[in-house]
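[recover] target loaded
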């Protein structure tokens, strides 16, 4: 699906903005603070049904009563998102819905400057990154993660209740165990898919013989729901003291291994950036393999952070995708 046009009204600092997109690469240039990222955010919202960086009330331009985003594809189809009176509504085809239906979502590769720090970033940022990536590959993953997080929130609220007892929390333990074990299995499956490609794709960018591996660092080596449940029950007193659940998939981490050592300490700045660029290429490949759709690629001011070799790699590997780039200055012709 190719984007033809996007219109923003009262979105962030834009009273009104219209962007006509090219089939291949569209450049949005301007000074920092001019609202370039907001344009990508609006596009992402119409493709995925939500922002990648904020809740709706923070997106609404100050002093305005509503915001509206209209995205039109080259085939004439449109997706419209409207936020008004603290409610968001999507208009797609002849439908009006509170959430963007799955059939109208379209995969996206989002590349932000902070992603270049992925290798050394916090466990929470890595989980967020891979959860977003895996969610585009599997609706089951998204549903399980949402169910797990809802159960986790309920359990954590009970832990703060002075009148809580083990019977009250048991049902949440059971649900966390069921969802958690399934999430671990899906995460391991996707990590295995990544590792089948990672070294080869990295070498194609870096032009060397280094080896790269992604490792899922689970909170415990558990595969059965009964083991997960027992761990939650064993930790109950500790959890009550801390006021939150200190065991589970919500504490997972991901590590990159570079030539059998932790990439965070052994890989150079350039090597780390090659790893991240390789991850973006693999993410796009996996989406195409899984969905049959070539994702739209949103590059938010990352060209200035990459040398010419990696810039050329981005252009070459995404030549079959529609790419929308933001930049402080003009990006040189590097094809």
């Amino acid at each position: 699906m190719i984007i033809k046009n996007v219109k923003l009204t009262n979105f962030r600092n834009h009273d009104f903005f219209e962007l006509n997109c090219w089939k291949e690469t569209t450049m949005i240039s301007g000074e920092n603070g001019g609202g370039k990222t907001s344009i990508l955010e609006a596009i992402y919202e119409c493709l995925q049904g939500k922002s990648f960086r904020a809740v709706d009330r923070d997106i609404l331009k100050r002093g305005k009563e509503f915001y509206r985003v209209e995205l039109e594809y080259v085939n004439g189809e449109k997706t419209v998102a409207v936020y008004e009176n603290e409610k968001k509504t999507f208009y797609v085809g002849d439908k009006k819905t509170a959430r963007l239906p799955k059939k109208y979502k379209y995969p996206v590769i989002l590349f932000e400057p902070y992603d270049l720090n992925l290798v050394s970033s916090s466990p929470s940022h890595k989980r967020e990154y891979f959860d977003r990536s895996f969610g585009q590959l599997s609706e089951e993953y998204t549903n399980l993660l949402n169910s797990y997080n809802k159960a986790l929130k309920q359990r954590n609220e009970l832990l703060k209740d002075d009148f809580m007892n083990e019977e009250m929390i048991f049902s949440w333990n059971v649900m966390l165990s069921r969802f958690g074990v399934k999430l671990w299995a899906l995460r391991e499956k996707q990590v295995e898919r990544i590792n089948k490609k990672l070294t080869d794709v990295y070498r194609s960018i870096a032009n060397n013989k280094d080896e790269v591996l992604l490792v899922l660092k689970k909170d415990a080596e558990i595969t059965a729901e009964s083991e997960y449940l027992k761990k939650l029950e064993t930790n109950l007193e500790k959890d009550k003291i801390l006021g939150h659940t200190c065991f589970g998939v919500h504490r997972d981490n991901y590590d990159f291994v570079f030539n059998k050592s932790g990439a965070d300490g052994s890989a150079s700045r350039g090597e780390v950036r090659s790893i991240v660029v390789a991850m973006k290429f693999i993410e796009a490949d996996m989406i195409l393999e899984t969905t049959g759709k070539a994702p739209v690629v949103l590059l938010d001011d990352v060209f200035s952070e990459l040398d010419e070799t990696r810039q050329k790699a981005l252009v070459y590997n995404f030549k079959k995708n529609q790419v929308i780039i933001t930049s402080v200055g003009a990006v040189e012709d590097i094809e």
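[recover] notes: The chain has two domains: 3-106+294-327, 119-281.
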